[in-house]
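Slide 14.
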Amino acid sequence: MNDTICAISTPLGRGAISIVRVSGNSAVEIMKNLFECKKLDYQNIMPRYMYFGEFLLNNGSRERCLSVFFKGPFSYTGEDMVEFQIHGGTLLTQLVLESIREKGARLAEPGEFTKRAFENGKISLDMAESIIGEINAESEGELRASLHLAQGFLAKNIKKMQNSLTEMLAEIEATLDYPEEDFEVETKEKIFKNLENILFELKNYQNSQKNGKLLQEGVKIAIVGSTNVGKSSTLNALLGENRAIVTDIEGTTRDTLSESISYKGIKLNFIDTAGIRDSQDMIESIGIQKSKQSIEEADVVLCLCDGSRELNENDKNILALVRDKKNVVYIVNKSDLPRKLEKFDEEIEISALNDKNIDAIKEKIFALVCNEKIDYNQTIITSSRQAQTISQAIEICQNIIDAKEESMDIIAMLIKSLWNKLGVLTGECENESIIDLIFSKFCLGK
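Slide 15: predicted structure.
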C-alpha cells in the first residue's frame, strides 16, 4: 500500500487562499488529528463536502479554514485525499504543511499526486502529459490542444489499435496451431489490411505534430534591416508596449531582444536585431553577427526598409542576405513621411510611429505559418516524446508490411513489438524510466 504524501498545491506567497493536499491511507486519520469541526462526524464523513472548522497548528495556534475529503477511488489520485483551504501566506502555509508531516505524511515528490493517479488507473500517460501542457501553456492554441488531449482521445484510439493487434496475434496463433486448415493466405490478407489502417492513423498523428510544434514553440520571427529604419519602433508597435529602446542614434540596438505575443492562439516570438552595417565597434559587430544568425534560424523574416529614402548599400546587402530565405515579409516603414523608395512586388507599408497597418504584419505571419486552419477538435501531438514514439511505431508498422512474405512466426514477433511500442504512448509498458521522467516535470503538489 502507498504511504501518505502531502504538498502545497498553490504558489507560495500572499494571496486569498493556499491549498495543502494530502493523499494516502492515513489522509483521514491526519485530518482527524488536525481539523476540528462541530458538524463533522469522522465516522460518517461526507465525501466532496466542504467543512468549515479550525486547523490545529503545531505551535498551538488555530487557523480557521475549509477542508474537503475525497474518497478513493473517486479522487484525483484514486486514493483517499484531503485538501485544506487556508488563508494565503507563506509562513502559515508552511506551518500547516509541517503540522501534517508531523502526523505521519511525507513530502510528495514533484508530480507524485498525478503519478499515483496514473498508477491507480485514473489517467493514462498521454493524459498526464496533457496536464503538463495545460499548466505550461503560453498560448490559447497550445492550451486548447492540451485540453483536448486531456479528454483521453489518444489513449482510446491507441488502445483500439492494440486490441486490433491482439486479435491479429490470436489469428496467427490459430493458423500455427492448425496448419492443415491452410488459413495462412486468408489470415495474412486480413492482418495486412488492418496494419495499413493502423499505419494511416499513425501517420495522421505524425502530421499533426507540425501543428503541435507550432502551438508549443510558436513562430520565431526576426526583424532585420539597416540602422534607423524603425526595427525597434516596429517591435514596440507589434507588442503594444515600449520594450525596445528607440532613438535617432544609429546602432542603438547592439544585441538581439526577444519578446512574445499571442495572435489567434499562436505564440509569435519576435526578435529585434541590431542594424546590419559595416562597423568598427566590437560590441556592435557582435550584435550584427547575431542578427545574421537570427535570419538563418527564423521561421519568418521581417525585412524593414525606410520608405522615406532610397536604398543605400546597407539596405542592398540585407536584401541580398534574405533573398533566398523562405517566408520573407518586406515591410516599408515611415508611411507618415513622403515616400522615396521604389515599391516591392509584395510589401506591407506601415507607420510604426502611428501604429498604421501593424495588424497586417501579424496576419501575414499567421498566413505564412498556418497554411490551413488548425482543427482543435482533432488530436494534436504536442509532446516531443509522443512524436518520437509515433515515428518509431510507424517504422515498425512499415517493417511488418514490408515483411509480408516472411513466416507467421516473424510477423507475430514484429506485431508484438508494435503493440509494446504503442504502449509507450499510454504507459502500458515496462519502461519505468520513461514514466519517472515524465512525472519529474510536474511541480510540487500536482
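Speaker note: The CA atoms of residues 348 and 360 lie 7 Å apart.
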